[in-house]
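Discussion board: Methods & Data

I've been asked by a reviewer to show the raw model output for two of the constructs in my manuscript, not just the figures. I'm not sure how much to include, so I'm pasting the format here to get opinions. Each protein appears as its amino acid sequence followed by a line of discrete structure tokens. Is this the kind of thing reviewers expect to see in a supplement, or should I convert it first? Here is construct A:
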Amino acid sequence: AGSKLREVFDKINNLLSGKPVQTEGQAVSVTQHPQGLEFVCYKLAEKFVKHGEGEVSFHHDSAFPIAVVLSGIWELHPRVGDIFLAHLHKKCPYSVPFYPAWKEGTSMEEYQRILGYEVHDSKVEEQDHFLKRMSGMIRLYAAIIQLRWPYGNKQGAHPHGLSYGWRWLAQMLNLEPLADVTAMLLLDFLEVCGNALMKQYGIQFWKTMFFIQKSYIPRIEAVTSSGQMGCLSRLKNFVQKCLQAEEIPLPKGILTPSFWRT
């Protein structure tokens, strides 16, 4: 509910603003320790990324309430946004976007970690689980860049708005595609903020969609084996439908004005 989200936002904002906040029966304040504020910014940013790789990866719609709170906090407390991006880029290099190359002297285990895989006791997580986590983090990022906290003053620009999404998409399409990962990330990104990018960039956006269909999807196909076609097929269908309809659908779960009255 909108009212619940406002409570969460106010509590986080009060904590970061140095006011005492009640939690688990006691009042806490960042002023209680010289590094209190820095610690809270760090842990809060880390927590938002964890929501992306956990909650959002399983429940796509949850990207929007989480993103709108972070967007508002980012506006008032830019340090949280900076640390959030640092955590996000480390956990999901594709959010830069960046495909880390293997460097001589790097162990395979370490390289897997750099690519974003979780490695425990030399066991690398399964590909499906890895893709799900990356998907959740990209969806959260794509939701953040288009949302603003509705109760802010809105005088300034969004601290990390759609221009960053436009840049991400352009840079993504300049990278040589990877099997599995590229098709999934593009589909996630376009499903979540394609509609917002279409409204903002108009004809330039449609040129990009046409480029994806004619030039980039064949390049993804070239590196994709027959067993990895699922996500690529969904991306193909999505792009084709959008080009035919000359419309990108609104993302599922977007927060409507009526949400804030709940």
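Construct B, same format:
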Amino acid sequence: QELRPKSLDIKQEELGDMVEKEMASTSEAIEDAVRRIEEMMSQARNKSSGVKLEVNERILNSCTDLMKAIRLLVMTSTNLQKEIVESGRGAATTQEFYAKNSRWTEGLISASKAVGWGATQLVESADRVVLHTGKYEELIVCSHEIAASTAQLVAASKVKAEKSSRNLSRLQECSRNVNEMAANVVASTKSGQEQIEEKDTMDFSGMSLIKLKKEEMETQVKVLELEKRLEGERVRLGELRKQHYALAGAYDAVEDGEAKPAPAPRRGILKKPPLAQKP
């Protein structure tokens, strides 16, 4: 009992209840997301037309398909989780099983929260895109985030599942379906963005030579500024990822009762190996 990880200040009997609550909360978040997308669809038909309506419908339809795939994955994950508990608890109660396997339970809770959060963020991003107050890139990032969080949920469920489990096979199939639907959201978003940008392309036919030259120079300046900004953002992203991995590694080390991992040694200059001595 003293050696059991204490990463959550929760009583043993409450840990099992948290799993069921989080899975139910995730299901509710997905159901709410589906309803909100349907509302956005009807609003888009009333407020837009032509190319914009076509783009909005295609994006929202792909988001709806993704939500349905996530909903099926969560249901299958819940069934697999129940199967794992029933086959592994023996004479113990469900709460005792969750308490005994607290690390696995906490991973399952974290993965479920990530899926629900990703679904909510996707809907909010889609809403902003339809209202022309958001960026298409937000939808693409949210789709990647959902694919990652569902992979986390599958991994957490797979840890204690039997390899021959039918529910595990169904869960893996659902995960592949989610990845496919997330890719469809990315594809529909990119194609829609291209359509809108092509429609809004400026017409330069009426410009004088001097005006064209001025526009060309201003555009070159803007390109250089954007390239510099892009380089800076890439460096920032790399540092954020390093910090993320460092914190995640430290957290795992503390969970296991070990010291934090030491930083990697700096690369030194490679020295030339000594020559062999003559006999």
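Answer (T.O., handling editor elsewhere):
This is acceptable in a supplement if you add a one-line summary per construct. For B, something like: The helical segments are 12-47, 50-88, 94-100, 102-130, 136-158, 166-199, 209-255.
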